[in-house]
Amino acid sequence: MSVPIELCCIGMKCPRPIIEIAKAARRYPPGTILRVTSNDLAFGSDVRAWCETTKGILLELLQEQNFFTATIQLAGLGD
Asked: Residue 64 forms beta bridges with which residues?
């Protein structure tokens, strides 16, 4: 597995973290691993929904207090 691309979305409120993930998905090839951190309370459900919609794979979703870390494997947007 390759080194994850780190994406810090701390301080961003819904829907901005998902917008940033979508931008990264257009910038990087399918199979790229993103590690996204966020403190938006809606992030957990939002990132799950985004992965389902885009066929991205949510490899891990951790929550420590009010901070989330999601590890996502990007799918091809044309898939």
From this structure: 67
CATH number of 5-73: 3.30.110.40
Q: Kindly provide the residue ranges of all beta strands, DSSP E only, lying in 1-79, ordered along the sequence.
A: 5-8, 33-38, 57-64, 67-73
Residue ranges per structural domain of the chain: 5-73
Rounded alpha-carbon distances, angstroms, from residue 16 to 1, 43, 66, 72, 77: 27, 10, 17, 17, 19
Q: Mind listing the pLDDT tens digit for each residue in 22-37?
A: 999 999 999 999 999 9
Tokens of 24: 């990264």
